[in-house]
Amino acid sequence: MQKQTQSFSDRNSFRVWGVLLFACVLVMGATPLKYTEDRVPSSLNPVFADDMYSVRIAELLFEGLIGWDKEQKPSGQLAVSWSIAKNKRSITMNLRRNVKWHDGKPFTSKDVAFTIKAMTSRRSQISDRYLAQIIKRVQVLSTHQVKIHFRKSLSKPLKWLHFKIIPKHRFTKKGRTRLPRRSNYFNRRPYGTGPFMFHRWIGRKIVMKRFPGHWNFKKIRLKGVALQVNPDKNIQREVLRYGGFDAIIRVRPKDIPLFERDRNVRLYPYSTNDWWYVAFNHKRGSLLRDRRVREALAYALDRDNLRSAHLGDGQVISGPFSPNDPLYNFSVEARGQDLQKAAKLLKAAGWRKGSGPYRKKAGRVLKLRMLVARSRSSYKSLCLAMQGEWRQIGVKVELVWMGDAKWNNQVFRKKRFDMALHIWNFDDLSTIFPLFHSKGIRNYVSYRNKEVDRLLKNATRTTDPLIYKAIYGKVHKIMHRDLPYLFLWSLTNYSALSARVRHVIIHPFNYFHYAPRWSKK
User: Fold this and answer.
1) CA 206 to chain centroid
2) Which of 70, 188, 323, 397 is the most buried (most CB within 10 A)?
3) How confident is the model over 169-208, as pLDDT tens digits?
């Protein structure tokens, strides 16, 4: 046994040094900022950025009309000034001149109009057409001026204008312009107006170079940025410690003490607007259509202990918002672990204890399958702990690990699952309408509640921010009662960067927004 363990250790060390050698080859000549992620971005086109890996890299390649200043207040990026109509139903934006796309073509107001069309059109292939509920139409007033008309008066219109702009001419051929599609070559070899331009994508490595034609080139301190994907957290940790990487985006809680003692590494906490949950399938015939079963599963878990033991800092949530979100209803208290309540609920639902460890009804064992994407394999201990706590109340939960593509197909498309572990990542543009409205495009759990439908519809019509918040406060309360999902927690994340990287500021929801100001020794 000792000999086998030593052999595994040798193989693991070989893998670490292999990645280190690869990283050293990467930095010969120019020395870009090298960061690592757990997964490859699904798309480099910000229109199709459905995961945070894609959102983060889009911050480097593309720019929006509006960005954030050092105090994280809205400031101009591709727009230099604007005026809001008195009725707050439109905004006129003056665009920055002398901005170039990475291919050298000029940026104009037509690119803004095209991007908005791509994000609002019914023919678009994007997952969340949230802008279609906000923007009515766009007027191109001149080469560098646009007027955006809203469907209703907005008290804070700038918050809806943080989306990235894509080039119209890239989707125009022989005078005909087509909407972006998920199969476009542009999604793997894009060009934007951002501080860094795409260079190459080979396997799990994406390299970007500083864009010499950028309108703010003199203030871009980094020579380039390179992403090296490695799902093995142990290798990520060791390669950063030995200088092969400059940044790990998300550090495991168990690695934080090690990095705190390492003089060559700096830890940076940052908030996110994401939250974890277990999806419950509400389809006809599902055991989880019975709310008593869903509630028993919630009472079975000591969520606070599970989070702190396996994931680190954060907060248990009671509804479909992160505590960082102003819509979070703090008056709704999350359920604590109560095994007796869980047992009573299952008994009332007809599931009774027998001679074995699991409950039965009419000879049928209370058995559920929870699907987990293989990219979340680092959370295996967490899933096993949850499985053990559900076993305590007589529920048999089978953990099924599958590749990400298959997981997406089984859960989102075919809806063939009992439960699924997932994380929603929200920025300040997204809404929960598509998740929980009975006709929502992301309502893959088949949840239906007429009162929720009515409230969500009313939220899209109101122009009063206080009423908007009150509506979602009611939705939060109903979600807590109904349990369309088992809401778990929102985490405080830590990023680890080499001490060689200076002037680091991390935006809470858009990690690389301030990256052009970073420098590397």
Assistant:
1) 20
2) 397
3) 999 988 888 999 988 999 999 999 999 999 999 999 999 9
Are 245 and 258 spatial neighbours (Cβ–Cβ below 8 Å)?
Answer: no
Distance between CA atoms of residues 67 and 64, nearest Å: 7
Residue 363: Cβ within 10 Å count: 6
Residues 6+ apart with CB under 8 A from 465: 155, 156
Write the secondary structure of 148-190 as one string of H (helix), E (strand) and C (coil): EEECCCCCCHHHHCCCECCCHHHHEECCEECCCCCCCHHHCCC
Measure the CA–CA gap between 118 and 236, rounded to whole angstroms: 37
pTM for the full predicted model: 0.76
Answer yes or no: are the C-beta atoms of 455 and 471 closer than 8 Å. Answer: yes
3-state secondary structure of 249: coil
pLDDT at 350 over 90: yes
CA distance 368 to 366: 7
User: For the structural domain made of 66-181, what CATH number should be given?
Assistant: 3.90.76.10
* Integer Cα distance of 244 and 34 in angstroms: 8
> pLDDT digit string (tens) for 316-339?
999 999 888 889 999 999 999 999
How many beta carbons lie within 10 A of that of residue 161, not counting itself? Answer: 23
Sign of the Cα torsion 435, 439, 444, 450 reads positive
Q: CATH number for the 15-49+194-271+493-520 domain, one of 3.90.1300.10, 1.10.443.10, 3.40.190.10, 3.40.50.11540? A: 3.40.190.10
* Closest among 114, 152, 147 to 133, alpha carbons compared: 152
Cα 186 to Cα 194: distance, rounded to the nearest angstrom: 15
Identify the residue whose tokens are 């007809």.
350
